[in-house]
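Lab channel / #folding
Pinned by the channel admin:
"Please post every new chain as: sequence first, then the structure tokens as a reply. Keep commentary short and put observations after the output so the thread stays searchable."

First post following the new format, from NK:
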Amino acid sequence: MSQPVKLSEEDWRKILTPAQFLVLRERATEPPFTNEYANTHQSGIYLCAACGNELFDSKTKFESGTGWPSFYAPLAQDKIALAADRTTGLSRQEVMCARCRSHLGHVFHDGPPPTHLRYCLNSVSLKLKKSKD
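Reply from TO:
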């Protein structure tokens, strides 16, 4: 993994759009079924929209029916960080970018094989680097 990115909240506000700041830095959730990548089938690598860290391969993306882009595995475990999230009264696992600690979404144990995990992410927290094929 490359060097950690540590910026002030003021610097993040200058770099990110208001919607990105709300999700990535304030841990909000974008509305389902209205986001850019929920129904995208383009091949490529999904990057952190804040710092450009490569996070997920489109080969691990699947249709979860939730209205958010879902993946069953990150590119590597050291690309993401997990933390307990009890903000809604439920016990969930928050998924963050390991490089800049930006909020990406949550991981659940109801995904497909081989991992049976569902990384349910906000589109606004991602940027697709399309492959040339």
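NK: Residues 9-15 form the longest helix (7 residues).
TO: also worth noting, The chain has one domain: 9-130.
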